[in-house]
Specification:
The complex is a heterodimer.
Chain A (H helix, E strand, L loop, with lengths): L9 H31 L21 E6 L5 H11 L3 E6 L5 H13 L6 E5 L3 H5 L13 H4 L4 H6 L1 E2 L2 E2 L2 E13 H6 L9 H13 L15 H9 L5 E3 L6 E4 L4 H15 L11 H8 L5 E5 L2 H6 L10 E5 L12 E9 L6 H10 L4 H9 L8 H4 L2 H4 L11 H12 L9 H16 L5 H18 L3 E2 L1
Chain B lengths: L25 H36 L1 E4 L3 E4 L3 H8 L1 H34 L3 H15 L2 H12 L5 H8 L13 H26 L4 H8 L4 H12 L1 H16 L3 H6 L13 H10 L4 H25 L8
Antiparallel strand pairs in B: 1-2
Classes of the chains: A alpha/beta, B mainly alpha.
Pfam families (chain A): SBP_bac_1
Keywords (chain A): Signal
Organism (chain A): Pengzhenrongella frigida
Chain lengths: 464, 317
């Protein structure tokens, strides 16, 4: 082997480098492309030619493809298929939350491969409505089922005159707390206002307990937003008239008040700042590190499904603490709905599925008992069965009657933006920067406002 | 850095042979026709899955689509935007800094391991070779998740080790430590792969060269540094290029670890994460294509500069 001693030929070097550069683009294109393929070609992911996870009872009937990730959904699908001769559901689980949205987003861009009916969280509806990805259900009899839902809930799923999804489950918020940890610290009644909450946090610390009051995750997204909303924050006005106009108010006084409150507790070391939905966070929820879990109505189901729980734990539920006990404000965290996509082959059949799949008591009993969902369908939510339901995890407490029904009844609706993912990502960055001490909470809110306004402008919106 | 997995291993033979002067005989032309026939299946796949998507992505990058105002042709506007976009430039700066630190460490580790293994011929050396290579055999996603657990202050061994001395363990994915935290994951995963490439190159050297060196009075160090390293320089250039491309396209590890450290690893942490987020989270497919091409330009410039500087040793002259 002889070593080269003469100089290289620039042209050949140039060509080689060019290929490497092109390779880099393609490789990155490939990594994106494989995701794209997941949405359209993967038979398990549904789509028009996909195979179904469930059994189709009546193969001659019109088939409607459904993407959903509800726990225990298979029983609900079977119930629908067994009770319908003309329409059959072909269900597949295309991933949870963002995983599913990524696939859906790709099918929108590709203009094919979307399911007929899709489960979406309420907060992402405007993001898909603006891309013309969802069908207006008004012509398909959406009004028939309007009376089965609370007005605030119905408003969350409408935009302008159109109705874009049929509500399924909601997330009215309450406070789940460790009664044993509280009692050991001498806190005999759970706090009802945020002032009492801060005082209880201090009392917990002073009692020598190692537990923190709760966690304020900087990646809480909808959770953080709900806390701001409780203090009067209404960050967006969008969708009622002109869908190219949006009003943005992310740095209002309410938001700043809430931020200052929490950062004060964080500074005193009374509250944790762990990222939500990580393994660490899940463990701390159940091992007594946090005395309180500020939760949505689906929270108890989430909590009781976590491993490593402390057997001696005594969990109880109480209403959310309030800023003003005289005029309580109820907020919502999460919740989902069934929408019909604009690619649906037979929108009428698809709309029937969206309206009826969670439109019976039998379906809801599966949803409540096996899936721990909080029903927005009034006939079951207001039934004796649901209000009087006792939860063994909470020592037999009737948590719906005590906490969540009032929270749901007081919820007045919330408007999300058509670029919610971006806004949430920026929120996480700003909250984190404030926790790191890089900026004050007020500055974080102001910066967030600036970034989201700039983004909206760059996306062609008129910001009012 | 998953992409590297698809690059064929092995060391290119130095291209000493000059191309034969071409004759324009009939036999040669017939041979060329047959040759085309043989490469046709590959060419077809190459065009369908590489050239066409590339062209489409480029076409997309020349358009702008906004949520409110629809799509229009915008020429190179997206590129001007990309190269003035602080988020993109921040990501590029990060991967450049990361490669500056990562690549020397990675190459030193793999070179040292290969040189040591080349000198040993016991059963232990075979076992060690395998063990050093094993991290590469673990899928990147699994590896990253595993490190996510190892770094966890609650479950990880780091917490316990520091606890024995009564100190609080650092969180390896906090904003200050995330650089080192990721560095460790990548070196762990890739050093074995590069070690195998170097080792294979070392095995290709004729042992009589060492004998001659020893007779001239060279000791072990001198043989390693003065004989072996220069003789495998083209393999070193190869892994350097692999490493630089892989690092500039850094994606999988930070993307996985984002779910446990959302604050330290943001949506524009590396250019590839930024392109991914833009396309699939913010539905800006056009701008994401432009970002991908812009990244391609950066890789092109980086590779060109390096290949030009190393032209005496890279076998491309």
């Amino acid at each position: 082997m002889k070593l080269k001693t003469h100089g290289g030929h620039p042209n050949r070097v140039m060509t080689a480098a060019l290929w490497l550069g092109l390779g880099a683009i393609t490789l990155s294109a490939c990594s994106g492309g494989s995701d794209a393929a997941d949405g359209t070609a993967d038979p398990a992911a549904g789509g028009s030619d996909g195979t179904c996870t469930n059994t189709v009872v009546n193969p001659d009937a019109e088939q409607v493809t459904v993407w959903a990730w509800y726990p225990a959904f298979e029983g609900v699908v079977d119930l629908f298929n067994n009770s319908h001769d003309d329409i059959q559901i072909c269900w597949s689980n295309a991933g949870q939350g963002n995983d599913e949205y990524t696939k859906f987003s790709t099918t929108i861009e590709a203009k094919s491969g979307a399911p007929d009916v899709i489960m979406l969280e309420t907060e992402v509806l405007p993001s898909f409505i603006i891309r013309d990805a969802l069908a207006d259900l008004t012509p398909y009899g959406a009004a028939d089922v309007e009376s089965s839902y609370a007005p605030g809930v119905w408003a969350d799923h409408s935009s302008g005159d159109g109705v874009y999804a049929i509500p399924v489950d909601g997330g009215p918020m309450g406070m789940l707390y460790r009664a044993d940890v509280f009692e050991a610290a001498g806190i005999m009644t759970p706090p009802t206002t945020w002032d009492e909450f801060a005082a209880a946090a201090q009392q917990l610390r002073d009692s020598g307990s190692t537990a923190l009051m709760t966690d304020f995750p900087t990646n809480g997204r909808a959770f953080n937003q709900a806390l701001f909303a409780q203090a009067g924050s209404e960050p967006y006005v969008f969708g009622d008239t002109d869908s190219t106009e949006v009003a943005i108010d992310l740095n209002d006084d309410g938001t700043k008040k809430v931020l200052n409150y929490w950062y004060d507790l964080i500074d005193k070391g009374l509250v944790g700042t762990d990222d939500a939905f990580t393994t660490d966070y899940n463990t701390k929820l159940v091992d007594g590190t946090y005395a309180v879990y500020l939760a949505a109505a689906w929270g108890p189901g989430y909590l009781s499904g976590l491993a490593g729980a402390d057997d001696t734990a005594v969990w109880r539920a109480a209403p959310m603490p309030q800023w003003d006990a005289a005029s309580p404000v109820q907020v919502n965290w999460g919740g989902s709905a069934f929408a019909v996509t604009s690619q649906a082959k037979n929108p009428e059949a698809a709309a029937t599925v969206a309206k009826e799949v969670f439109g019976t008591e039998e379906a809801w009993k599966i949803g409540i008992e096996e899936g721990a969902l909080y029903p927005l369908w009034k006939p079951i939510a207001e039934s004796e069965y649901f209000t009087a339901l006792e939860y063994p995890f909470f020592g037999g407490q009737k948590i719906n009657e005590d906490v969540f029904l009032d929270a749901a009844a007081g919820y007045e609706g919330f408007t999300f933006s058509p670029f919610q993912n971006f806004a949430y990502d920026q929120l996480t960055e700003e909250l984190f920067a404030a926790v790191q001490g890089e900026k004050s909470p007020e500055q974080a809110a102001d910066d967030l406002q600036g970034q989201v306004v700039d983004y909206a402008t760059s996306q062609g919106f008129t910001v009012k | 850095m998953t992409q590297l997995a698809t690059v064929p291993t092995g060391v290119p033979a130095p291209t000493n042979a000059r191309p034969r002067p071409t004759r324009t005989g009939g036999i040669d032309r017939a041979r060329q026709r047959h040759g085309w026939l043989f490469v046709a299946p590959f060419t077809l796949v190459f065009i369908t899955f590489l050239i066409v998507p590339l062209g489409y992505a480029f076409w997309m990058s020349l358009h702008t689509k906004t949520l409110a105002a629809g799509e229009h042709f915008s020429g190179f506007e997206n590129y001007t935007r990309a190269f003035t976009d602080p988020e993109f430039l921040h990501g590029v700066a990060f991967v450049l800094r990361f490669s500056l630190v990562l690549i020397p460490i990675q190459m030193l580790v793999s070179l040292a391991a290969a040189l040591v293994l080349d000198n040993l011929s016991s059963r232990l050396s075979k076992f060690s070779r395998l063990m050093i290579f094993v991290p590469y055999a673990i899928p990147v996603v699994i590896g990253a998740m595993m490190w996510g657990f190892l770094y966890s202050p609650r479950f990880g061994p780091i917490g316990e080790i520091f606890g024995m001395f009564g100190i609080d363990a650092p969180f390896m994915l906090s904003p200050d430590n995330v650089f080192a935290g990721l560095l460790n994951v990548v070196v762990w995963q890739w050093a074995g792969y590069y070690m195998i490439i170097i080792y294979a190159a070392l095995r290709g050297i004729d042992t009589s060269v060492y004998e001659a060196a020893r007779m001239d009075g060279a000791n072990g160090w001198q043989i390693a540094l003065r004989i072996k390293v220069p003789m495998i320089s083209s393999a070193l250039v190869l892994i350097f290029v692999f490493a630089i491309i892989g690092t500039l396209q850094f994606f999988t590890e930070p993307q996985i670890l984002r779910s446990v450290a959302a604050g330290s690893i943001d949506a524009s942490f590396t250019p590839n994460i930024y392109a991914y987020t833009l396309a699939f989270s913010y539905s800006q497919f056009n701008y994401a294509s432009a970002i991908s091409f812009a990244l391609g330009v950066v890789v092109f410039i980086g590779s060109y500069v390096f290949l030009f500087l190393s032209r005496k040793r890279n076998g491309l002259s």
